Hints:
- By secondary structure, the protein is an alpha/beta fold.
- Helix content is 36%, strand content 26%.
- The protein has ten helices and 14 strands.
- Helix 4 runs antiparallel to helix 5.
- The longest helix has 26 residues, at 280-305.
Amino acid sequence: MSDTYAIQFNGAGKSFDSFRLGPIDLRVEPGVVVAVVGPNGSGKTTLFQMLLNIVQPDEGVIRIFGEAYGQREVEIKRRIGYVPDSSYAEEAGWRIDELVRFYSHWYPAWSPETWRSLSERFELDPKAKVSLLSKGMKRRLAFSMAVAQSPDLLVLDEPSSGLDPFAWRIMLDEIRQFMADGERTVLIATHTIEEVRRLADYVAFLYDGKLLDYRVKDTLIDDWKTLWIEAAFEEAAELPGVVDVELGPLTRLTSDRASETERALEEAGIAVAKRQQVELDEMLHHMIVAEKRKQAASGRTEGELHR
């Protein structure tokens, strides 16, 4: 049932002059943290803007808690706290307290207690002008306001950008507290691998407008391994799961299905000398390389068909 999902993308896509996002098929259950990772220009912000209906998809359907945008757009958006990748309301010359007063009016579930606690933890001066805040202070403000809305879904686009280490740790702690009831959902776009390690239940890898993979973080960590073998195994690249081979005193294999790779090595009588987890950024690198090869092969095939 669609109403069991906090977020549901069914073939949703958006085309621009030089970029296309999707079609995206993605289902996110309530009560989890999903990290969306990908290089700049991969479509993370556009994905979030489609989710918020700031950008309307050209195709497909997006549902939030089982509802598609329409006449109930206001009600749906009141259930979402959003930290965009840029600031807002600077041109009005508002102070923080004026901005909070304006925003809280539109959110019936606004929690003055939550706002007070967060503004104190992040050392936000209510009389400070938003336009004069540093980038890091603006991120503190945006995050605090989004959480104070008491949303069911928190959407964070690079929320730690510009934060110092102290404020970053506070933000992570507040996200954990936000998730404590087990019913709220967080979608976070990040370049910070440590945020993925500490927070994410699921990881979505995005590149060139395409969703390359979406899996449980712990499953990814189990599946992806770097293996070292003492033999110079010429057929190593053909083993199941192997995405990269480096020859040396020990042959280094990177696999996205490590258990299958090890089974094949065992059947070939080759012992694994060492194992190591693959970092998430390295996983993304190998996925991008594979996608580029796929695109290149597709281009060659189309060229041959049109000869």
